[in-house]
């Protein structure tokens, strides 16, 4: 039966390399024979070291995830000896205790070719452009592949040579004495910066980096329904990596400009229409601009301030995570009634006549409730 290597380290099956390393370091500090001489602790240390050996190796971890056991029938890692140190390299034990790279086994030179970083550019769009989508050519300034050395960093006709300080290992070692005896530690070679090779004749155009900065034009299509803060990803259009490494992605972030008439709430739009007092009382029909053109807004007689009329499907496109549009939102029209602040004598007299006809010359707050329980009547009753 395959061993539960994740359980031995106390991590989940989806744990990342850093989490696995932290779990091993914590257990190694507790179980190392120089710290805990107990026989059971030594056996546990052997299991922990073997589990880390397996889960830190992508190929062996793949076998575990498929239900197999890359160490066979209980065989120890790296030779399977009974000594806990044989289950894991001495350099990794030092790594667990001190957090650095141990010198018991070489890490090897790091690649000069590295992935590039992502880039971000912002695009200002109007509400109408967000509703319909746009296609534009953007000017971006990013690192691109050097056209002279095509990423190698070497001048034409030259090649990298092995570093004579680290002999191509990419690291140099030093020996120190500690309570464990002689401790061999490693650090990146200062001459080649850990690459294991040096460029004797760097490319004059890129200075040996394999890339140069350049301004270029990139076409981007913004789908209908985007909103402020949304990003469109252009794969492989970001920064080219050092040594001509693969380019990162370019993200185009939308910045939606405020609209003079509409405010946006997701896929819904809101606007306010101010009506004269007479139009609200008598009813009217108004021309209303929408994203699709002009619409007629019918106002019923007696419409009150604060009334909201909903025009279905007259809002923004609903953009799904798949990039497809699924219907449209609504347009909410908020009605505001404007009370005149200055009247002519004739207008004042007409309003007085209307108030007399309606019995409203002297408003009674108690009449606000048909049962006679207005604010004044409730106050009066509270003191009885």
TrEMBL record:
Zinc finger residue extent: CR-type: 133-215
CR-type domain residues: 133-215
Annotated J domain residues: 4-68
Subcellular location: Cytoplasm
Cofactor(s) for this UniProt protein: Zn(2+)
UniProt key word Zinc: yes
InterPro entries for this protein: DnaJ, DnaJ_C, DnaJ_domain, HSP40/DnaJ_pept-bd, HSP_DnaJ_Cys-rich_dom, HSP_DnaJ_Cys-rich_dom_sf, J_dom_sf
Major subcellular site: cytoplasm
Gene3D superfamilies found in the cross-reference section: DnaJ domain (1.10.287.110), Heat shock protein DnaJ, cysteine-rich domain (2.10.230.10), Urease metallochaperone UreE, N-terminal domain (2.60.260.20)
Cofactor binding description: Binds 2 Zn(2+) ions per monomer.
CXXCXGXG motif repeat residue numbers: 146-153, 163-170, 189-196, 203-210
Cited SUPFAM superfamilies: Chaperone J-domain (SSF46565), DnaJ/Hsp40 cysteine-rich domain (SSF57938), HSP40/DnaJ peptide-binding domain (SSF49493)
Residues that bind Zn(2+) 1: 146, 149, 203, 206
Positions annotated to bind Zn(2+) 2: 163, 166, 189, 192
Keywords, comma-separated and alphabetical: Chaperone, Cytoplasm, DNA replication, Metal-binding, Repeat, Stress response, Zinc, Zinc-finger
Top-rank lineage group of the source organism: Bacteria
Assembly behavior: Homodimer.
Family from the record: Belongs to the DnaJ family.
Domain observations: The J domain is necessary and sufficient to stimulate DnaK ATPase activity. Zinc center 1 plays an important role in the autonomous, DnaK-independent chaperone activity of DnaJ. Zinc center 2 is essential for interaction with DnaK and for DnaJ activity.
Function: Participates actively in the response to hyperosmotic and heat shock by preventing the aggregation of stress-denatured proteins and by disaggregating proteins, also in an autonomous, DnaK-independent fashion. Unfolded proteins bind initially to DnaJ; upon interaction with the DnaJ-bound protein, DnaK hydrolyzes its bound ATP, resulting in the formation of a stable complex. GrpE releases ADP from DnaK; ATP binding to DnaK triggers the release of the substrate protein, thus completing the reaction cycle.
Protein name as it appears in the record: Chaperone protein DnaJ
Gene: dnaJ
């Amino acid at each position: 039966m395959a061993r539960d290597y994740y359980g031995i380290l106390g991590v989940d099956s989806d744990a990342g390399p850093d989490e696995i390393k932290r779990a091993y370091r914590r257990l190694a500090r507790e179980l190392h024979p120089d710290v805990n001489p107990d026989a059971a602790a030594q056996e546990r240390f052997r299991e922990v070291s073997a589990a880390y050996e397996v889960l830190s190796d992508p190929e062996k971890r793949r076998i575990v995830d498929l239900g197999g056991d890359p160490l066979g029938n209980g065989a120890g890692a790296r030779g399977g000896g009974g000594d806990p140190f044989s289950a894991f390299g001495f350099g990794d034990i030092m790594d667990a205790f001190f957090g650095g790279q141990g010198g018991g086994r070489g890490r090897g030179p790091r690649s000069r070719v590295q992935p590039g970083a992502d880039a971000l550019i912002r695009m200002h769009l109007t509400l109408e452009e967000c509703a319909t989508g746009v296609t534009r050519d953007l000017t971006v300034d990013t690192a691109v592949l050097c056209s002279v050395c095509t990423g190698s960093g070497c001048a034409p006709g030259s090649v990298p040579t092995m570093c004579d300080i680290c002999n191509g290992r990419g690291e140099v070692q030093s020996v120190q004495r500690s309570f464990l005896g002689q401790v061999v530690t490693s650090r990146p070679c200062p001459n080649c910066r850990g690459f294991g090779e040096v460029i004797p004749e760097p490319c004059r155009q890129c200075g040996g980096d394999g890339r140069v900065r350049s301004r270029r034009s990139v076409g981007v299509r913004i789908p209908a329904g985007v909103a402020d803060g949304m990003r469109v990803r252009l794969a492989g259009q970001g920064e080219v990596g050092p040594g001509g490494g693969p380019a990162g992605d370019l993200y185009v972030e939308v910045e939606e400009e405020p609209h003079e008439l509409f405010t946006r709430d997701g896929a819904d739009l809101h606007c306010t229409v101010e009506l004269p007092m007479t139009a609200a009382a008598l009813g009217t029909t108004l021309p209303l601009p929408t994203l699709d053109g002009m619409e007629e807004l019918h106002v019923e007689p007696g419409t009150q301030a604060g009334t909201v009329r909903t025009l279905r499907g007259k809002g923004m496109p609903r953009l799904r995570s798949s990039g497809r549009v699924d219907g449209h939102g609504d347009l909410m029209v908020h009605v505001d009634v404007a009370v005149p602040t200055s009247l002519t004598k004739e207008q004042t007299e007409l309003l007085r006549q209307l108030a007399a006809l309606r019995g409203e010359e002297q408003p009674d707050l108690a009449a606000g409730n048909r049962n006679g329980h207005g604010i004044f009547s409730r106050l009066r009753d509270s003191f009885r």
